[in-house]
């Protein structure tokens, strides 16, 4: 919600800070992670060891990659729409 708000308001971090009561660094970090990796980038991975990564088949890895690219595409379409305004 905070990331969507910030992006929708042309990355007005100050407005997000005031509205949601979070730090600038936290908002900036979330927006950057979302831009780089979509919603997958916002998943909390703290405490996960190297062994916790599931062994995926090649087909499963490709499906995951497709999903990530579709999320990235949706984000870029949203950003493009905002920039056209």
Radius of gyration: 15 Å
Secondary-structure-based class equals mainly alpha
Overall pLDDT level? 85
Largest sheet: none
Q: How many domain units? A: 1
Order of helices and strands: HHHH
- Taking the alpha carbons of the first and last residues, their distance comes to 21 Å
Strand content: under 5%
Shape by Cα distribution: flat
| DSSP summary: helix tally | 4
Low-confidence stretches: none
Number of strands: 0
Please estimate the helix content: 55-70%
Explain briefly what this protein structure is.
By secondary structure, the protein is an all-alpha fold. The chain has 4 helices and no strands.
Explain what you see.
- There is one protein chain.
- This protein has about 80 residues and is mainly alpha-helical.
- It has one domain (about 1-45, about 50-85).
- Helices cover about 65% and strands about 0% of the residues.
- The chain has helices spanning about 1-10, 15-20, 25-35, 60-85.
- α1 (about 1-10) crosses α3.
- The two termini are about 20 Å apart.
- The mean pLDDT is about 85.
- This is IS3 family transposase.
Topology:
Elements: H1 2-8, H2 13-20, H3 24-37, H4 58-84
Feature tags:
mainly alpha; single chain; 85 residues
């Amino acid at each position: 919600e905070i990331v969507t708000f910030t992006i929708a308001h042309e990355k007005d971090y100050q407005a997000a800070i005031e509205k949601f009561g979070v730090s600038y660094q936290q908002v900036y970090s979330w927006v950057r992670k979302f831009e780089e990796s979509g919603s997958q980038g916002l998943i909390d991975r703290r405490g996960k060891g190297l062994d916790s990564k599931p062994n995926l088949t090649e087909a499963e890895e490709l499906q995951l990659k497709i999903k990530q690219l579709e999320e990235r595409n949706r984000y870029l379409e949203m950003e493009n729409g905002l920039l056209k305004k």
